[in-house]
Design goal:
This protein has 218 residues and is of the alpha/beta class. The chain has one domain (10-207): Alpha-Beta Complex (Spore Coat Polysaccharide Biosynthesis Protein SpsA, Chain A), CATH 3.90.550. Helix content is 33%, strand content 19%. The protein has helices at residues 20-33, 52-63, 77-87, 107-115, 137-153, 187-194; strands spanning 10-16, 39-45, 66-70, 92-95, 120-124, 131-132, 168-171, 200-204, 206-207. Helix 1 packs parallel to helix 2 (52-63). The longest helix has 17 residues, at 137-153. The two termini are 24 Å apart.
Amino acid sequence: MQLKRSKLRLSIVIPTYNERENIAELIEGIEGALRGVNFEIVIVDDNSPDGTAEVAESLNGRYGNIVILRRPTKLGLASAIVAGMKASKGEVVAVMDADLQHPPDLLPKILSEINAGRDVVVASRYAAGGRIKGWSLARRIVSKGAIQLARLLLPEVKRVKDPVSGYFMLKRELLEGLKFEAVGYKFLTELLVKKPKARVAEVPYTFKPRRGASQSSA
C-alpha cells in the first residue's frame, strides 16, 4: 500500500453510506474528544443519496480538518477503508463506523496505547470490561462463532479477543508494502494475519445498537 506522509499525528477513516442523521454528531464527538491532537477525518462516502457527504462538507467549513472522498457507487466497506487509508496523511490511522456504535470518546485512550509503543490497538467488545448492548442471543452466538472460527483457521489472530472489530487504530508504517484483498468487511483480521509480529493491545468498550444504515456489520 502506497501512503502519503505529513506531520499529522492521526487520520480517522470513516466509511459512510446514508449516514446523514449520524455524521454531524459523530464528527462533533471526535472533534471534542481529540482537542490538542493534530488530526484529520477522512470520510469515504459511497455516493450516499441522503446527502451524507454534503453534511460532512458543511462541517469542514467549521473545523477545516475533514477530507471527503466521494466514490461513484456503493463499493463495500473493506475497499472504502483501503481508499481512505491511501488518501490519509497521519502517522497513525484509525478506522471507525459512522453509525455511532463506536464511541469517539474512546479515541484518546486508544491513541495513548499507540503512544506507549503498540502497533495496533483494537477497541474490543470481548476484552475484560467490554460489553454489547441490544443484541439477541442468536446474534451473540453467531458473533462468537465467527471469532472462534477465525481463531481456528488463522492462528495469527489468537492473541486478540475481538479480531473482527471494526474499530481500531494502527501505526501507519505497518501498512507499507501490504496489499489488501478489500473483500468483505474484516480488514482487521487480514491485517493481523499479514503482521503476526505486530504489538497489539485491546481497549474494552460498550458496543451499542446501530443507528442508520452503515456498511459495517462488525
